[in-house]
Records
---
Amino acid sequence: MTTWKDVVPMVVSTLGSSAESLACVLDFLKVLPEEVTEGRKITLTEDELQQRTQELLGDNTAQVVQLLIAYAQSSESAATNPQLLEVITSWLREVPVADIVNSPLLPVILNALNNDRSFEAATECLCSIFKETREVDEYMPAIEILLPRVLALQPRIAQAAQDEDSESFKGFTRIFAEAGEAWVVLIAREPKVFRPLVEAILECTHRDFDKDAISLTFIFWYELKLYLILEKYIEARMQYVDVYSSLVDIMMKHLEFPTADGADETDLFDGDRDAEEKFREFRHHMGDVLKDCCEIMGVTPCLTKVYDAIKSWMGSYASHATEASVPHWQQLEAPLFGMRAMGRLVDKDEDIILPQIIPLLVQIPHHEKLRFATIMVLGRYTEWTSNHPEFLESQFQYIVSSFSTDSKEIVRAAAMAMKFICSDCKHLLGGQVVQLQQFYDQTLDKLPGVSQEELTEGVASVVAVQPPTQTYQLLKLYCDPLMARLMALANQANDEESKLKVADHMQLITLFIQIVSPWIEPNQDNPAVKYCQEIFPILSTILDSFMTFTPICERVCRTWRYMIISYRTSMAPLLPQMANKLAEGFAASRQGCFLWVTSAILREFSEDREHVDEQTTESIYTFFEAQSTAMLKAMTDLPPQDLPDVIEDFYRLLLDALLYYPHKMIRSQLFTPIFRAAIAALDLEQREPLSAVLHYLRDVISYGGDNPSSSASNINPPEIQQLVRQLILANGNELVKGIMKGMMISFPGDCFTDGSGVLLGLFEILPQETTSWVDGILRMLPAGTVREADIDRLMNSIREKLSIGHDGVRKVRSLLQDFTNTYRRRYVAPRDGLGRLEATRFQYSG
């Protein structure tokens, strides 16, 4: 009904001025801006929508403002009607904010904060006004009016806290915090004028004893920090240092765990696990605020506060601590958590406060939460420790001794800390590498799976930096017990749970292979490969025994893959055995994990690698073709929908093959069936396999032109270009059908760009032929879904763009994307099938 121009005046006059009618008018006025600007079923063009928006909203702003003023002044009840405030909020998108601020509506909004009925709506309205003034230079007159009115609300903070009125306190906190967010650049520019607003936000932070509202201030403190750390605002930064210093003290207090009401010190939240989890998450957000404070104040003053808090507790309560009880432990745990949060910002050269704090940490009385917090701190400062080796021994012993406690949380924390202290201080722990293995062997079975991996990462890091002459012996020392455990687990595995334990334990072997990678001169034997040769038969036997259990197959293949990645061409002696097992495994199981390893081998032993002889390269390519043949047979036996994961792995492998062996592959007899299999796979609807297939097709098509997706910088030979073009000419119609059908009907949204990229590649090398294919496919669409005139218009536009040259080709891509998107929005796939658009089943008889 675009012809109805006087919508607002007519609705208002028609409904009249009775109380019931005014409620309807307010409802209408509230939803009108929302429907006009956010309506989903608007069929107008962009220009029509813009014109209609002006007619319905822009042309009526003055009348609406006057109507709202008149209504607000009609009675005391009207002035506190939440509907009135909601209408003001809704129209703030259209009414200039200055018209509201300079009108009698501003006092109405502020006075509405005094009434419980209208408090929430008034808060929302006021915060919406602040958001409209974010462009501070443009809205400075309005801000000058708003600032004193907002500051006048500050006494209400203390009153709400005193009355324990949590809803009011949260509302006032939001008002001050969102005013600060909106005017943050002015707070940095004019600290003397806006400091009272910052102090009001600080007061909200301080008085929030229930910790329900404090999170509303976090964004403000972060955004203000972003300005104050700039050189431009260094003077303002100095003026706000004391505010951030007070903020550190407030956060430290809020970080404290609650005190147990009863005798049970372990139940701090009266059994409310949700409240406990919420508090833990909340602490990490407060830790982020502490980082903001560090960036303003500097790390040393913040750490000094931690040090003072620890010393204060030690002086007051340490002498009263026993094995069974630690008085007021919350006051000690909070600064420890704060110190941990600051860790990322502490330089490893800090020599003022940390040398005083670290010796205190290892003397903290035993208490589960204190020990947990201390271990987490030590794990966070391992880079600093690596630069201060004199503090390593005491920390290392403290962490090691923590593994003997009964607390699962402490043990998990200790495993994580060991990972970091071994990784960062690995060069300092060489003298203890043998003793470390004894500890590792004795401790490993007591740990949960994740902690086993973390501890393994740590000790493997120490092994990795030892001289290569020791690598073989150290791998035997550490990994032989792991292999013994692995064989024992495999022999006992008779159900899914026990088989999963085998797979999980395999990961520990993989971590050693992944991390222990000594540098060896070319043509020298790698001692790590010597150990790999010893364990390979065992891994092969386990693989053969559990060929039908995917997790074990994947873990064995992951181990082999990392052997190739870590030791690269030094793995040549193991390649024949590995290739045989990969070929047998894939043929027997059709699991994609075997293709992962093949892909790694292709990359590391490609034609352009140094120290790889031609015979090895040829053997590897022959092995790759055998894997490909097996996959093509699998795709003949089963439809793509039954092999989505394997198809993804296969085409990711082919991307590597095309990248590193392009000429061999394009000249291969398998090149055509692999391409046709890719076209058949376009019938899939899962994002990941489709993405792999589309990327492969794009790369293949690029070899039909002058700029192929190649790892080499050589010119693409005409012979190769001709072979690719012949392939596309023979299969182009089916390819375009698969792509167009996918973009219009079946592809997930994330694949549209890749699909149109394939079409773009086709238009670049074969523009006329591709135009003909597209035209034919569009005319195969189900009857009634698209008009012939629309197809003709699209095809004429495509031909027009192609006549421009290279720049026009990219515009063709946009045309097709727009067309397919429009078709997709209007129509769904017919239930009785796609008729002539149905894909043909892939067949391979090689």
---
Amino acid sequence: MTEVSFARSFLTTLDSRPIKISADHVEDPKTYPARGAYTLPKMPSPMSRPRSSQPGEDGSTSSSTRPAPGSERSYTVQLISARNPPLDITLSAQSVNTSVLDLKTAVVDKTGLELDKIKLLYNKKPVADSKILKEILGAEAVETVTKVEFGIMIMGGAAALAAAEAAKNAAAAGGDVAQGPSGGEVLETAEFWEDLRGFLLQRVRDEKAASDLADTFQAAWKAKR
């Protein structure tokens, strides 16, 4: 017997058997057995609502104070110098992508110091200008900390700050300020290219890439001379 013949005879046998439930069968709900309503038991004690906690001394907060998903967390950055000169600068609403160079630039705006005379320390260790808060704090601290503290080291100490304040006061008073090189003479100075490196580093946030770009610009300028 071939497989086709066997299948045909098997189906014929099934067709000869009575169908117990039709394809359009519907059960009558009235025939269901009666059952009593089930009531869930009460809780032994009511559940308390989560309370929002205030930031602790270390700046940590509970999960109820965390920002909503999709919103960017901001930090309060405190820059302190316990040595001479004493400084205490607070920067609010700083994002996780704020770089060390951004913080140093803010110090320059508030004090008038030169950028290359400012060094920032985190946990008493120097941090590179290209580092951002997210990298410095780490994945765990980024979600819990709201206040970040850096140390400031001023190269030249109080003398550098005094010179910066004197220059700022002279500019505000409209006094005669010594004029430096201008025009093409500026491109001959090393300070110009160092400033360019700092600007590129702030934008690309990569020390090697910023240095390569600055070298490319300088080489192109020298080739056109």
---
Amino acid sequence: MEQTQVGSIATTDIVAAFGLHRAVQIVAPRQRIYIQGDPADSLFYLVNGMARLAVTSVDGKEASVMNINTGEFLGEDYLPAFPGVRAASAIAVLSCTVLRIQRLDMLRAIREEPKLAVIFMNSLLLRGVRAQAAVVDQFFNSSEKWLARILLIMARDGLRRSVSTLIPKITQEALAEMVGTTRSRVSFFLNRFRKLGFITYSGQIRVFHTLSAVLQSN
């Protein structure tokens, strides 16, 4: 993984808590930020990009658990008093900039920086809510709804300011891995969303807020 220096993010609360010029890691799409079974000795903060958590069975089958977005922590399984190993792998979906935080550094910062502690707790609470939604999608909802939810999450910041927004470029193969389906099914759903006017798609996907109607359908 290539190393770079924190630049425009140096003024954020997270980076400021750990030093203004701390090196961060650039992780290319499909590369692993950490691997299932690795020692859980550090926490990661996703400065930008998108990643997914995936578990691999003993026979080599991989299943996506949930997605991690810009501004979220990952790898918090290092927090117990006696941390063990990673329960899942974190895999970059888009190019990711991640800040790696050693366990003792994070525990110290939580004690000394109340604002950081609040940000971290809010992140964990949001993760819990989204994890529940991911479980519902996997067991009770269709792949179509899960794809719609992923697109809406990727468009979240832009849709706060406008009725539509372009999401970062992402391949149908990457979306299929996140949903846990085939590329042909993703292509079918994207074409359906386009015909319904929920997205436009010509190399880069533009998501309209009306896509949320898919989540409400029976």
---
Amino acid sequence: MTRAPWICRSCTRALLNRAQFPKPQLMRFASTETTLAPSLILRAKSLTAEHNELQKTLNDSFDAAKAKRAGELRRVATALEEWEAANSAIAELRKMTQEPDQDADLAAIARDELDTEVAKLESLGRSLSASLTPRHPFADLPCMLEIRPGPGGLEGRYFADTVFKMYRGLCARKGYRSKVIKYDLAEGAGDQSSAEGELPLQEAILEIEDAGAYDAFRAEAGMHR
């Protein structure tokens, strides 16, 4: 029979503690800052450089085509500038919070501003991504909204009238210039109105004359419930 190796009491206690309480593993959490794909950033920088070159050319001589292109790229250039400024501010604030000799009050202020800038960066990242989305070829044009009732009889016509009034109110609130091209009630229904004052609409056409109205309203197509 072989003898077991001798182990001191301290080593035994250490081994037991290690078995019961394993060494914690370090976990890496995702950063709270918004990260954009490098390809998107390179694309934004390329378009911004094109915008800056066009602006230099337009300062010397005006060209309608170049001015239109510069206007299309202005949104990307502005979004990239704001996104880069937020990143620079975050780097500077993080440096201030990590300096060992930093004043406690200044460090606390820097931490508060850092949280604000990180939240701001997330919104700016979404804006930058949206600015890189190709615009619809009709985005800068006015538009016409055609409203017709769906199934539902008289109640459906009342609802169509509500939708028509909703869009007229939206145009008034947003400052869009609108004009009623057509407003027909259902035949045989007369001017019978609902308790809320809705009329049995057959068809309505609303023209929105402002440039860019198509881009603002093009997602409104389809059935409303």
